[in-house]
């Protein structure tokens, strides 16, 4: 069973993805496009009725008009303190930090896993409790899905009563094998992405065509030997 992969149809997101995929994209611009895509995908998630984002309330306020009666308005307010922005270390942290600028009261958390040691947890900076928080989990690209699976398993273990219908995964590119693996373990998982690549490289390091070595492209130095 595959996860519910929701691929963005936004032309601007597609434009940024095209620029990111290009081998000549400088590191600074790569990070900029990455963060713009993170914002666009999160924006789409908030407006998606399938998710039914819960922490939006009706509010009343007053504009600066001198006539107070004319200046009254009704609006919507996101209770950002009930949102948790989680990131897979290291590649998802830039995306999570970007969204924290827009949701400054959101809870921040990240965790890291060692691929060479069977994705053993090496760092955990998650909050002690989640209560009824809505979790947005960021990772820049998902090749095999093992790091994300380790993160989801950590959430399940740490917050035993957590309802995974209150979690969405946001990434630039996810491979089809990874989405199938994630869906088999966590049925109904919502994944928001700019693209889904059908295959991965034989060494399971990159999606095809993917984004290259995304950690080096984000953090530099950008000195990669490409193979045609």
Written overview of the protein:
By secondary structure, the protein is of the alpha/beta class. 33% of the residues lie in helices and 28% in strands. It contains seven helices and 14 strands. It has helices at residues 11-21, 27-47, 68-71, 93-102, 146-158, 176-185, 214-219; strands at 4-7, 56-62, 72-78, 83-88, 107-114, 120-125, 134-138, 141-142, 167-170, 173-175, 190-193, 195-197, 199-200, 207-208. Strands 1-11-9-7-4-5-6 form a seven-stranded mixed beta sheet, with helices on both faces. Helix 1 (11-21) runs antiparallel to helix 2 (27-47) and helix 2 (27-47) packs across helix 4 (93-102). It is globular, with a radius of gyration of 19 Å.
What is this structure, in a nutshell?
By secondary structure, the chain is α/β, with parallel strands linked by helices. The chain is 33% helix and 28% strand. The chain has helices spanning 11-21, 27-47, 68-71, 93-102, 146-158, 176-185, 214-219; strands at 4-7, 56-62, 72-78, 83-88, 107-114, 120-125, 134-138, 141-142, 167-170, 173-175, 190-193, 195-197, 199-200, 207-208.
Considering the chains and any ligands shown, give keywords for the structure.
228 residues; alpha/beta; seven-stranded mixed sheet; 7 helices; disordered C terminus
